[in-house]
Amino acid sequence: MFAVLVLFICAAAAFSQQAEPEKKPAEKDAKTQTAKPGVKPPYTLTVKTRPILNISLKADKANMADVAQDLSKRLKTPVFLGTERQKEPLSIEFSELTLEPALQLLSPTVYVDYEIDSSGLNPPRALGIFLYDVNQGEPPLSAVVHGSTQSMLIEGNTEDGVEPESEEKKEEQPLRVTYQNYVLSVKAKQQPLPLILLKIGEIVGIPVDIQDERMDLVDANISKLSVEEAIKQLSPNIKMFVRADLSRSERRALRLVLAEPPKTVQEGR
Question: Is residue 266 part of a domain?
Fold first, then answer.
């Protein structure tokens, strides 16, 4: 068997956080709700980032589109509403909930697309929040996660007519990746990290962008973990793009990026 890495690098920017035109955030300016003198405001929204991100909301027949626009501004994240949600009057009260539990109270169907740093130094960053109607369907996979650069793995037999390898032979392969029931296993012995990631992308069915082309050799023995947790064990320089389906308590990988390691400033410069 042989494996050949073919890297296609495009000049366009790798990522964009502009959403597809299918669903647009509310057009009006995202201003904090204020009331005229003597008039009770329809809602009060508070977003705190310390010690962790938490949200408080008290609304009495407030316009859902106004609340979503305000939430988008404070989180610095696009919020997209289903058609019914845009027309819905919102009456609710909760205090100091973290992001996902708060969102689940706002809509029956919720998706959140995240960028995750495998180093664990930074918290997951929400790229897009979708507060959808019942049975509306899932937003496009590229709604907020875009990439114009993609690498490709090409592999095959060197000779025609070779009999399929036995399970014993497969176990002896220097790189073996399996994915079943949403869990990933990786066995690698002195294999280039880009090759491992491309093989994972091929098996899982997601695009992989190799920005760091160095062929550092890696040993790995990862057994039955989620893609998200498995990737964290391979390198601190991987960016993962993940979609959380809060209504079904499911998470799926959307894209992998092997980024160049951060540059260190040499002493004396």
Answer: no
* Cα separation, 269 vs 266, whole angstroms: 6
Residue 126 lies in a domain: yes
Residue 209 lies in a domain: yes
- In DSSP terms, 219 is beta-bridged to none
Of the chain, the end-to-end C-alpha distance in Å amounts to: 48
Contact of 30 with 73, CB cutoff 8 Å: yes
Q: Is the C-alpha dihedral spanning 111, 112, 117, 119 positive or negative?
A: negative
- Which residues in the chain come in under a pLDDT of 70? 1-39, 148-171, 264-269
Q: How many domains does the chain have?
A: 2
What pLDDT shows up at residue 193?
95
Domain around 91? 43-132
Tell me how far apart the alpha carbons of residues 269 and 37 are, in angstroms, rounded to a whole number. 59
Neighbour-count burial of 242, counting CB atoms closer than 10 A to its CB (0-12 exposed, 13-18 middle, 19+ buried): buried
Same domain, 153 and 243: yes
> Quick one: which of 200, 198, 203, 196 has its CA closest to 175?
196
Q: Measured between alpha carbons, how far is residue 201 from residues 3, 21, 150, 177, 225 in Å?
A: 14, 27, 11, 10, 15
